[in-house]
């Protein structure tokens, strides 16, 4: 998703011809001839390498335009599958609300496409434990509701998960003491000065480490 905007979906048709069979309602099958995740330790295999003309990129290698074009192609196919699925669901159920979970549900670009498509009014994404960790979370909630007769509380508005800020927080004095003990040099800024320096650094292409409030639970924690 992050690399896709830098490329063109040049491999889209190749993927549709060889890797994935997509039905009109979005149901799909992957051609396991090109993948190894079910029986091996890698996502793809030598057939995949041959189809796309090169082996996988090594972690230390610089990204090439080919890598960007591959990412753009996967993103485009993913968006098409997701839209077909959600359109079919909306037509079959007449529901206007959609809840999403799972790794693909973290693809915010595809989620934006769902909202702009207009068939659904509300889309809620279970972000913090959208991967395998969500299995334990879901099993716990299922046991609570189904076997322990636990009640559900549905908020009328807002985020009942409160942004998933579930982990510890540290105040400024505590942070300063820890940094000073480690030998760090600290400068305390006003809020306005902090915003000015941060925005200028970002405009200059620099990276910012931002630590604020409680830590956020989940693989996509940002700014917490």
Give the SSE layout.
Layout: H1 12-18, E1 20-22, E2 28-30, H2 46-52, H3 65-93, E3 97-100, H4 108-117, E4 122-125, H5 133-147, H6 172-181, H7 191-203
Parallel strand pairs: 3-4
Antiparallel strand pairs: 1-2
Helix pairs in contact: 3-4
Q: Keywords, please?
A:
224 residues, mainly alpha, two-stranded antiparallel ribbon, 7 helices, two-stranded parallel ribbon
Description of the molecule:
By secondary structure, this protein is mainly α. The chain has a domain at about 5-90. Helices cover about 40% and strands about 5% of the residues. It has 7 helices and 4 strands. The protein has helices spanning about 10-20, 45-50, 65-95, 110-115, 135-145, 170-180, 190-205; strands spanning about 20, 30, 95-100, 120-125. The strands form 2 sheets. Strands 1-2 form a two-stranded antiparallel sheet. Strands 3-4 form a two-stranded parallel ribbon. A hairpin with a 5-residue loop joins strand 1 and strand 2. The model has no long low-confidence stretch (mean pLDDT about 90).
DSSP summary, beta strand count: 4
Bin the helical content. 40-55%
How are strands sequenced across the largest beta sheet?
Answer: 1-2
Shape: globular
End-to-end separation? 22 Å
Summarize the structure.
By secondary structure, the protein is mainly α. Helix content is 41%, strand content 6%.
